[in-house]
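> forwarded from #structure-qc
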């Protein structure tokens, strides 16, 4: 399927975040969409209040927008990302 602009590519991945891990601020050139499969984490997105996500929560991060992830607790989190 064609993307929203020339050169747009969609990548699907499942990621795990171990307890106590902090994913540093970063950006992507396109939209990041995600869905929490298990566990949960904090999602600070520049210009927005930090959201605390849990299983069945979805999220989107706008292109080129700095964001991070923080993982407290004692359970690994699994997320599906597009």
């Amino acid at each position: 399927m064609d993307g929203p602009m020339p050169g747009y590519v969609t990548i699907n991945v499942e990621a795990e975040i171990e307890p106590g891990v902090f994913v540093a601020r970063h950006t992507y050139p396109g939209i990041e969409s995600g869905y929490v499969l298990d566990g949960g984490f904090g999602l600070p997105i520049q210009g927005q209040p930090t959201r605390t996500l849990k299983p069945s929560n979805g999220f989107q991060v706008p292109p080129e927008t700095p964001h991070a992830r923080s993982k407290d607790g004692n359970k690994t989190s699994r997320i599906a990302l597009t």
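QC bot note: The chain has a mean pLDDT of 90. The CA atoms of residues 37 and 55 lie 5 Å apart.
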